Amino acid sequence: MLHSFLLIGQSNAAGRGELDKAAPIENPHLLMLRNGRWQPMHAPVNYDRPFAGYGLIETFVDSYQKDHGVDVGIIPCADGGTHINQWQKGGLLYDHAVFMARLAERTSTIAGVIWHQGETNCSPVLFPGYEAKFEKFYADLCADLHLENIPFVMGGLGDFLVNVTKYSEYAPQFNPMIERIAAKYPMMGFVSAEGLPGKPDNLHFNAEAVREFGYRYYEVFKTLEPKDRVFTEKPRLDLLDRSELDAL
For labeling, which of 2, 104, 154, 235 is most exposed (least CB within 10 Å)? Predict the structure, then answer.
């Protein structure tokens, strides 16, 4: 049985943790979707840019796998530098994520959605109206993928973002806003990024931070996870088996 997680948002969802600053997570039960097939997880999982790195998703799925004893797959659809307007239904990012999730559902069951986004929206032009746009995005995603009873976990922006001049005015307002949004929905959870270290760019969490952030995401996820959910076994025809992998 394969449980999967949809990974969406911008660069801190994709992951920018330095690849030389942490050891890879080695767990043969962790997979990622590539070209419609499940392959062993390796960093960078969400290769949206040449400088993609470790992300919070890795420690999250490792924790989930060890608790549940099943294979776990990641559906990587995050894209760096993107704002909430680009995640609306009908846009390329939204439609791509829905397409990939539906493809993954042929051979897995979606256990949750992992979202991190907002840095780009901390500007005078893009901050106003965020709450309504996010809630529209969430409602559409739930309807299109039948996720009404599936945990949706989103994290706060790093403390360090206030050090970037163009974001300094709105960054302090962003986390209270999304925490307020999360409180409205029974299957949505907010994860604090308080105290997590950033890279010198003051935009991205470093490798140490993303490891810890993934654990924090999982702790919040556990508070939302339905205890009586039954997972339906899906055909594994598109999964590379171990003998195929060894031959590659």
Answer: 235
pLDDT digits (tens, 9 = 90+) for 129-181: 999 999 999 999 999 999 999 999 999 999 999 999 999 999 999 999 999 99
Largest CA distance in the chain: 54
Could you tell me the CATH number of the domain that includes residue 243?
A: 3.40.50.1110
Which of 91, 159, 148, 82 lies closest to 115 in space, CA to CA? Answer: 82
Dihedrals φ, ψ of 33, to 5°? -85, 125
Is the backbone peptide bond immediately before 44 cis, with ω within 30 degrees of 0? yes
- Give me the phi and psi of 3, to 5 degrees please: -100, 135
Task: Give strand ranges (E) for the chain.
Answer: 2-9, 30-34, 37-40, 71-76, 109-116, 152-155, 188-191
* Host domain of residue 218: 2-247
Q: Please give the order of strands across the beta sheet that includes 37-40.
A: 37-40, 30-34, 71-76, 2-9, 109-116, 152-155, 188-191
Per the structure, the count of domains in the chain is 1
CA distance 197 to 3: 30
